[in-house]
Amino acid sequence: MLILNLGCGTKTSDQPEVVNIDWSILLRLRRRKVVRPIVPLFIRGKRLERFNALPDNIVVHNVAKGIPFSSGCVDAVYHSHMLEHLDRDVAEAFLLEVKRVLKPGGIHRIVVPDLERVCNAYLAHIARCGNDLAEARNHDDYVGALLEQSVRREAFGTGQQGRFRRLIENMILGDARRRGETHQWMYDRVNLPVKLANLGYREVWVEDHNRSAIPRWDDYGLEVDENGKEYKAGSLYVEARK
Question: How many helices (H) and strands (E) does the chain have?
Fold first, then answer.
C-alpha cells in the first residue's frame, strides 16, 4: 500500500505506507536550520507548541502545484480541511492531479467543513433566539461559522500578538489569504460529489469518519484524536474511486 496524507499539518501517521505532505508556514520555517533557533522570538503560546510538535516524517511540498509522484502509483489519497482553502480553479486542477497519481480503483478520501451542517446550525439558532436576548447575543458566533474564515484579513495567530509582532509577522509572512488560511469555497453532500463525478471519478459516495473503503483505515488514526473521538467533528466525508 501507498497512501498520501496531503496537507497533513501536525496530523500525521507513522505507518510506513503513509507519506505525509504539507506546506504550512511553520513547517517551512522549521526546515530552515538558520531560521529555526530564532522562531521562538516571534511566535508564542499554542503556535510555538505546534511548531515544536511538528514531526520529522513530513515531506515539505506545495500540492497546489502538483503531487510529486508518478501516474497510477498510489493506492489512496487523503486530505482533511484543505480543499476549501484552494481557489475553485486550483481545487479542480488538484482533484484531477489526485486522480492522475491514483491507481485504477484507488480511493480518494476528502474531508471538508460541512456547509449544510453550518447552515442548519445557523437557522436553528435564529429559531431559538426569538425574544431571548441572552441567546441572541451569541448569534454572531453562528454567522462567523459561515463567513469568518472567508473574510478574515489577518492570520488568526498573528492577531493574538502585540502590535509590534503583528507588524513584523504581516510584513514577512503576509495576510491570511497569502498564508492559505482563508476559505475560498465551501462544500456539501451535493456539490462535492457532483464535482468529482464531473471530473471522471468512477464512483462517489458520502462516508462516516470511522468508515472507509481504504483497507485498515482505522490503523492510521487520521480521523480520531488522542481520546479516540472524531478529530474534526461536524465534517463532511466523501470518497471517490478512480
Answer: 9, 7
Tell me the CATH architecture of domain 3-23+61-114+187-241. 3-Layer(aba) Sandwich (3.40)
Helix (H), strand (E) at residue 156:
helix 156-159
Judge whether 32 and 18 are in contact, CB under 8 Å: no
Residue with cell 483497507: 215
Query: What is the four-CA torsion angle of 46, 47, 53, 54, rounded to 10 degrees?
Result: 150
Location of C-alpha cell 485498515: 216
Distance CA 235, CA 116 (A): 10
Rounded mean pLDDT, 131-145 = 92
- The structural domains of the chain, with segments of one domain joined by +, span 3-23+61-114+187-241
pLDDT, average across residues 183-209: 97
Can you tell me the distance from the alpha carbon of 204 to that of 137, in angstroms, rounded to the nearest whole number? 41
pTM exceeds cut of 0.90: no
The pLDDT of residue 150 is 86
Tell me the sheet residues that pair with 108: 77, 240
- pLDDT of 106 over the 90 cut: yes
